[in-house]
């Protein structure tokens, strides 16, 4: 027993090193957010040498709540739409045989090779034509469109691994294609759907370039744009910026921790249904 535990020591040491390597930046950010500007310049690398919540009060007074709400709203709506559309598109691509199956799949995947910067001017013109410029609605189109290729790729590859015997058994019970998708395929997609959720939510939460081009009013700005308020022309409020970044990272941590548990449960029980 002791020999077995000792043989695992290198794994434990590696895990500890990775924990310190990935956790230290967050601890440093949290520690800096609790300092005043002068204290930060006096002791920039000393952790938790002060406990000052004034930066968080300043952050909320500068409108961070509004930026938070805008980012949560547009990211949540876009991710839900992507999960629904991608799962519906992936089902026929992976489970049905038709002549242009591979062509359609390649057309979806080719979207991953399209640089978003090449679409900024056309999307800007479209948003003006449709009358949605400087609204959160302007972000939903590009957010959903550019999230679909990788999402369809992940879900299609995952669906192809599901045994077709389950689908045939459902057909014998009288299920339609939609019934098979809803009752058999979709419950087994939990790990892949959570992967799509985590990947897209993190990407959209941090998205900057489309928000910069399509939004101009402070009340419509998302969190990445709002963080610019902490940068002046000749100086930067570093503790205040760290306080804003600490609060901005909390939704990502919550989504990741919640979704990680769902992924593990899906992997453990997704293939066996009563």
UniProtKB/TrEMBL annotation:
Broad class of the protein's primary localization: membrane
Stretches assigned to the ABC transmembrane type-1 domain: 68-259
Presence of the UniProt keyword Transmembrane helix in the record: yes
InterPro entries xrefs: MetI-like, MetI-like_sf
Cell compartments where the protein resides: Cell membrane
Membrane topology: Multi-pass membrane protein
Keywords noted in UniProt: Cell membrane, Membrane, Transmembrane, Transmembrane helix, Transport
CDD domains: TM_PBP2 (cd06261)
Top-level taxon of origin: Bacteria
Keyword Membrane applies: yes
Transmembrane intervals: 12-30, 67-91, 103-124, 136-159, 180-202, 239-258
PANTHER family hit by this protein: ABC TRANSPORTER PERMEASE PROTEIN MG189-RELATED, ABC TRANSPORTER PERMEASE PROTEIN MG189-RELATED-RELATED
Family, as annotated: Belongs to the binding-protein-dependent transport system permease family.
Protein name, UniProt field: Raffinose/stachyose/melibiose transport system permease protein
Protein species of origin: Metabacillus malikii
Native organism taxonomy: Bacteria, Bacillati, Bacillota, Bacilli, Bacillales
């Amino acid at each position: 027993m002791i020999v077995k535990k000792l043989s695992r020591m290198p794994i434990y040491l590696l895990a500890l090193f990775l924990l310190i390597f990935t956790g230290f930046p967050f601890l440093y950010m949290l520690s800096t957010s609790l300092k005043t500007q002068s204290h930060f310049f006096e002791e920039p690398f000393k952790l938790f040498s002060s406990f000052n919540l004034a930066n968080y009060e300043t952050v909320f007074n500068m409108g961070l709540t509004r930026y938070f709400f805008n980012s949560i709203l547009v990211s949540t709506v876009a991710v839900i739409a992507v999960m629904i559309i991608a799962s519906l598109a992936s089902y026929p691509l992976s489970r049905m045989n038709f002549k242009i199956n591979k062509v359609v799949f390649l057309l979806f995947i080719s979207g991953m090779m399209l640089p978003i910067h090449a679409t900024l001017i056309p999307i800007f013109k479209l948003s003006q034509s449709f009358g949605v410029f400087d609204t959160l609605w302007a972000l939903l189109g590009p957010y959903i469109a550019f999230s679909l290729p990788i999402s369809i790729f992940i879900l299609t590859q995952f669906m192809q691994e599901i045994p077709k015997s389950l689908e045939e058994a459902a057909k014998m019970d009288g299920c339609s294609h939609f019934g098979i998708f809803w009752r058999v395929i979709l419950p087994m997609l939990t790990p892949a759907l959570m992967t799509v959720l985590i990947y897209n939510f993190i990407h959209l939460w941090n998205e900057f370039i489309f928000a910069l081009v399509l939004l101009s009013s402070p009340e419509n700005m998302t969190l990445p744009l709002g963080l610019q308020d902490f940068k002046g022309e000749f100086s930067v409020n570093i503790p205040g910026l760290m306080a804003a970044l600490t609060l901005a990272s909390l939704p990502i941590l919550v989504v990741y921790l919640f979704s990680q548990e769902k992924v593990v449960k899906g992997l453990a029980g997704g293939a066996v249904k009563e």
